[in-house]
Amino acid sequence: WTWRLGRPCIQQRLVSGTTTVSKKAVVSTQSTGDDITGDGTTSNVLIIGELLRQAKVYITDGLHPRVAAEGFDLAKKKALQVLDAMSLKKCSRDDLINVARTSLRTKVKGQVADLLTEIIVDAVLAIQKEGEAVDLHMVEIMTMEHKTEMDTRLVKGIVMDHGARHPDMPKKVTDAFILTCNVSLEYEKSEVNSGFFYKSADEREKLVKAERAFCDDKVQQVIDLKRAVVGDSDKGFVIVNQKGVDPNSLDALAREGIVALRRAKRRNMERIVLACGGTAVNSFDDLKPEQLGHAGLFYEHVLGDDKYSFIEDCDNPQSVTILIKGPNKHTITQIKDAVRDGLRAVKNAIEDQMVVPGAGAFEIAIYQALQEYKNEVRGKQRLGLQAFAEAMLIIPKCLAQNAGHDAQECLVKMLQEYKGVDRCVGLDLATGEAMYPAEAGIWDNYCVKKQLLNSCTVISSNLLIVDEVMRAGMSSLKG
User: Fold this and answer.
1) What is the pTM of this model?
2) How far is residue 258's CA from residue 290's CA, in Å, rounded to a whole number?
3) Strand, coil or helix: what is 76?
4) Strand locations in 64-171, DSSP E?
5) Which residue blocks in 164-282 are alpha helix, DSSP H?
């Protein structure tokens, strides 16, 4: 279970009852790393714990914690050099698929991971804009407790968790025009105190009609636009309004065969425009056909008491939806967390423009490099450097244990294979033998490994010298 610990599980195990400085530091580190890179939470905890355990061996024999921390710092600098030397410039679609698959297979079973891999890569590539940072907020994640996790799919459009509010409106239209607006189509009370003053029923009726005409005129403008662009064809017309639509307006729109969705979420308004095209309007005074978007298919899906509206088959969507399905909430939550990490992994690979061999190859390379570098270091710092090198092996050990293999035996095989070749060597989880991750397409994110080295070294060093800091604080208080 160690390798499958994610951010939610770690927080649940450590935050509840967290009273010590060390626990708070570890939780803060893994949360920060997850916010920055979106992955590496488990590795953070494992490496910090192993660094402290390896340092304890030497500190128990009399090594000062400050000297051990200095050795950690030397080892970190050398490890960063190894990271830069191992990194390969790869960013094709196949490389992104391999990065996503490597990340997902540590979180969900292989069959689901392979399904999600294609979905995630296609989603990120769809929203990617040349010369701009990838905005993952343009990938909507919608969950539906229905069927199995293997029915999860990518919708090249938008899925909204509500439907039309009139029974006579069409449930499905094709070749549809999409009007995205933020205009109130309902009777609203004034912001100041006001009232109707009339002497007879006729006067009251005139006042009501005049008030109603304000909404009816806006509805008529929409109807006129629909007639102008659709004419006598079978094309559909859909309104997605951020504000309300009252029953009278719904009746008028339904008679014209217009589908109206009211009170759409604010976050969906920008996404709909990016997916379907057109522009979002705040007034109907100057409606033009150029302001309309287009979708090949719009339909409403009813699941129990819930309604979902699908806008699909968009021409060039720059905002897409990943529709996650599952038989229960636990499965959906697990897949949702995996999708989130997979999206960040692909985004990191695009921004870094480089990847690092996975399957424990990076940690094995660091161990071997530090063993050679140790001969160049003088003084007791060599012991801290040795502890750092031993701590790096916790990653391939956990990989072997979680795959059901003997950790020591797998480690020996990897180290022996690495000494005989000039390329990175990782662990084949299926056989327990050494393998070449570059040939198998197993890649990790460069930024995740870099974040691990920096954050784990700093936290471990701070925890080692915390007694010294506290003694210095107490002595200053006594003075």
Assistant:
1) 0.79
2) 18
3) helix
4) 139-144, 153-155, 158-160
5) 201-230, 247-255, 266-276
